Amino acid sequence: MLNATGSLHGGVIASLVDAVSTYALTTTGSGRPGSSIDLNVSYMRPVKLDDVIVISASTLSCGSRLAVSSVDILNKETGKLIAQGRHTKFVGDTKTQLQ
């Protein structure tokens, strides 16, 4: 899962943002995981092989159709922000949307 420079690959970080924000979302609103509309990740620092990271997520809003979550990934030792993500998901009922 490391890139050519020995850092955690950005795609792995994006996958973590996707998964962890979805887990946070399932604890709010309808509890549905939803479908991704938008996923944004800002990368601030690399993660090296032996680094320990801490990931926290929160649901910023959860309406009848859309939910927005935020994810912070920090270096446990330094407390510095490694990456920050924001994830928008459609959480409405697709059956009523298609009719």
Automatic annotation (TrEMBL):
Q: Which UniProt keywords apply?
A: Acetylation, Cytoplasm, Cytoskeleton, Hydrolase, Lipid metabolism, Mitochondrion, Nucleus
Gene3D superfamilies linked:
Hotdog Thioesterase (3.10.129.10)
Localization in the cell? Cytoplasm, Cytoskeleton, Spindle; Cytoplasm, Cytosol; Mitochondrion; Nucleus
Per its UniProt record, what InterPro entries does this chain match? ACOT13, HotDog_dom_sf, PAAI_dom, Thioestr_dom
Subcellular location, principal: cytoplasm
Under the heading CDD domains, the entry gives: PaaI_thioesterase
Alphabetically, the GO molecular function entries are: fatty acyl-CoA hydrolase activity
Q: Which reaction does it catalyse?
A: octanoyl-CoA + H2O = octanoate + CoA + H(+); dodecanoyl-CoA + H2O = dodecanoate + CoA + H(+); a fatty acyl-CoA + H2O = a fatty acid + CoA + H(+); hexanoyl-CoA + H2O = hexanoate + CoA + H(+)
Q: Where is the Thioesterase domain?
A: 6-80
What are the BP-aspect GO terms?
lipid metabolic process
A cellular component term from Gene Ontology for this protein is: nucleus
Q: How does it assemble?
A: Homotetramer. Interacts with PCTP.
Q: Which purpose does this protein serve, as stated in its record?
A: Catalyzes the hydrolysis of acyl-CoAs into free fatty acids and coenzyme A (CoASH), regulating their respective intracellular levels. Has acyl-CoA thioesterase activity towards medium (C12) and long-chain (C18) fatty acyl-CoA substrates. Can also hydrolyze 3-hydroxyphenylacetyl-CoA and 3,4-dihydroxyphenylacetyl-CoA (in vitro). May play a role in controlling adaptive thermogenesis.
The record's PANTHER family line, in alphabetical order, gives: ACYL-COENZYME A THIOESTERASE 13, THIOESTERASE SUPERFAMILY MEMBER-RELATED
Query: What family does the database annotate?
Result: Belongs to the thioesterase PaaI family.
Which NCBIfam families does this entry report, sorted A to Z? unchar_dom_1
Please state what the protein is called.
Acyl-coenzyme A thioesterase 13
User: What organism does the UniProt record list as the source?
Assistant: Lymnaea stagnalis (Great pond snail)
